[in-house]
Design brief:
The protein has about 230 residues and is α/β, with parallel strands linked by helices. The protein has one domain (about 1-230): Spore Coat Polysaccharide Biosynthesis Protein SpsA, Chain A (Alpha-Beta Complex), CATH 3.90.550. The chain has helices at about 15-20, 35-45, 55-65, 85-90, 115-125, 190-200, 220-230, and strands spanning about 1-5, 25-30, 30, 50-55, 75-80, 100-105, 105-110, 125-135, 140-145, 150-155, 165-175, 205, 210-215. A seven-stranded mixed β-sheet has the order 5-4-1-6-11-8-12, sandwiched between helices. A two-stranded antiparallel sheet has the order 2-3. A two-stranded antiparallel sheet has the order 7-13. It is globular. The model has no long low-confidence stretch (mean pLDDT about 95).
Length: about 230
Amino acid sequence: MKAFVLAGGLGVRLRPRFGELPKPLAPIGGRPFLERQLEWLRGHGVTGAVLCTGYGGAAIREALGTGERLGVRIQYSEEPEPLGTGGALKLARFAVDGPCWVLNGDTLPEGDPWLLERQRWEHGAIGSIALYEVTDARARGRVECDASGRVRRFVEKDPEFAGSAWVNGGLYSFSSSLWRHLPDGASSLEHDVLPGLAASGRLLGLKLPGTFYDIGTPAEWERAERHYSA
C-alpha cells in the first residue's frame, strides 16, 4: 500500500531548539525524523510514499530527493498556502490509487499498520485509527469506541481529566473513498472530517500495544530522542 505523510507542519514549538528547520527534518538519534518514518513504513512493505509538504517543502525535497536511498519512491504534494491536514490530503488526491495509510509528519508509532487495514477492510469502513493508551491523557484528546471498535466520539483535551485513556496515535488506514469526504480548501482531518465519519458509523479505532513518539513539543521530542539514542 501507499502511504501519505502529512509533513507540512510549521513546528513553531520546536523553533527555540532547531530554528527554521522544518519539523519533519528535526534530528532524532542523529537522523531526520522523516527518514525514520519512511524507514518504518518501508519495513512494513511500503514502497511508495506521498509527502504532503508546506513550510520547508524545498528543504524536505532536497534532503530526501526521490527516496531511492531509502528504498521508497517519493512523490511530493506541496501546499501553495497552509491548508491543514484535510486540505493537504485533498491536494494530494492525484496520487490516490486505492487503500492507503496516512501518517502524521510528527508521529512514529509502534505496531503493525496492516492490522489497521485488515480491520478497516473486514468491517467495510472508510477508515481505521491506531489508538494507544497513555497514562496521563490531560494534554491529549481522547477517542472513545464501542465494543465493536467503532469510534463513537472524540473528546477534546481536558486538563481536569485524571487517569489513562486511549488517544489518536496519528496513524490511519483509509479507503480511497475518504477523498469524497474531504472538503475543498483548508480543513482539519481531525476536526472537520473524522467526527462526521464517526457519526455515520464508518470509522473504527484499533487499540494497539506499545506506544508512539510525537515530536510536536520539546518534551515529546526529548522523549523520542532518548529512545532512539539509547
